[in-house]
Design goal:
Helices cover about 55% and strands about 15% of the residues. By secondary structure, it is α+β, with helices and mostly antiparallel strands. It folds into three domains: about 130 residues, Helix Hairpins; about 55 residues, Roll (SH3 type barrels); about 80 residues, Alpha-Beta Plaits. The strands form three sheets. Strands 4-3-2-1-5 form a five-stranded antiparallel β-sheet. A three-stranded antiparallel β-sheet has the order 7-9-8, covered by helices on one side. The N terminus is likely disordered.
């Protein structure tokens, strides 16, 4: 930052020297002696050529010198401003707790865009026609955008995920038809680890393009089980047996209270729905434990756990059977 005043001062101090040089060249051209004949003529020709060269250079410096100096100043000041603004953007993103992997990318993207604008402004200052250049850059950007349409869609989806945070690292989610624990949220992909330790890489466009099921974010889950008893069993006894099993499980949360109700009268059984609430990390341990304990509890109360069966009745003619014998 301290180099800016020094460069600006040197440029300003050089402007009077350029003007003096151009003025001196013009005066020398008007007052120079006219030498003719012999060697004097040749010397006069060289002197006239030198004077004309000085005049031409002086006119060029007088015409374009200030423009070149202005373009250089635009480049220097613009580069400094671009760095400053990109740093401000990075600090603002860090304050809103944006993902650390995205902050440097956005900072560099901001700096590059501002620098392109500065270069175009500098070229316009020296008289370069920038309309065609802007058109070429726009066409190139359109071509690149079409070629990278899928990648840009994944990038935009990654930004949305990082900003709105539908899930975080360590959450167990179901996205794009697959389930797993979130291991990394990258700019273009989301990395999951399946329950059987398989690494799954899902493009972010597919993540935001469908339903996102987050099993972790709420902190609690409801275990859903079905306990079946025979039509000959007493339903009140069955209910007491199920409730005693739930009361003996310490990992079941008291609030919300577990639900035990008759859910269906099936073909060969009466089905109770059993729905206790547990912490997310206790879901599968409680699910497996209750499946075993419910069977043991129902049998301990003398209840029968039915299974699908069919009764076949065969009708025969007894007289015909005796005749055949």
């Amino acid at each position: 930052m301290d180099t800016m005043p020094r460069v600006f001062g040197q440029a300003v101090r050089g402007i009077p020297a350029l003007i003096v040089l151009a003025s001196g060249a013009a005066v020398a051209a008007e007052t120079g002696p006219a030498v003719t004949g012999g060697k004097g003529a040749e010397s006069g020709t060289l002197t006239g050529f030198a004077q004309q060269l000085v005049i031409t250079v002086g006119e060029a410096v007088a015409t374009y010198g200030l423009k070149i100096v202005g373009a250089v100043l635009i480049l220097l000041v613009g580069r400094w401003v671009a760095k400053l603004l990109s740093a401000v953007v990075a600090k603002a993103l860090a304050k809103v707790k944006l993902d650390p992997t995205l902050v440097p990318f956005i900072e560099n993207l901001t700096y590059t865009a501002l620098l392109i604008f500065v270069v175009i402004a500098a070229l316009a200052r020296v008289g370069v026609e920038t309309a065609s250049l802007i058109a070429v850059l726009g066409a190139a950007g359109l071509a690149v955008g079409l070629a990278l349409q899928g990648s840009l869609a994944n990038f935009a989806s990654g930004v949305l995920i990082l900003v709105f945070k539908p899930f975080r690292l360590g959450d167990f989610v179901e996205v794009a038809g697959v389930k797993g624990t979130v291991q990394a949220i990258q700019v273009f992909n989301t990395v999951l680890n399946a329950p059987d330790n398989v690494r799954i890489v899902v493009p972010n466009g597919q993540v935001t393009g469908g339903c996102i099921l987050n099993y972790t974010i709420n902190g609690t889950r409801r275990v859903e089980l079905v306990a079946s008893v025979s039509y000959d069993d007493d339903l009140k006894t069955a209910r007491r047996a199920i409730e005693s099993v739930l009361a003996a499980e310490p990992r079941i949360l008291p609030t919300p209270a577990p639900v035990v109700a008759v859910g269906e009268m099936a073909d060969s059984s009466v089905d109770f729905i059993v729905r206790p609430w547990v912490k997310v990390e206790d879901y599968w341990p409680v699910y497996w434990a209750l499946t075993e304990k419910l069977k043991e509890g129902l049998e301990a109360h003398g209840l029968n756990i039915p299974f699908p069966q069919q009764e076949i009745t065969i009708k025969t003619d007894a007289a015909a059977m005796l005749k055949s014998v």
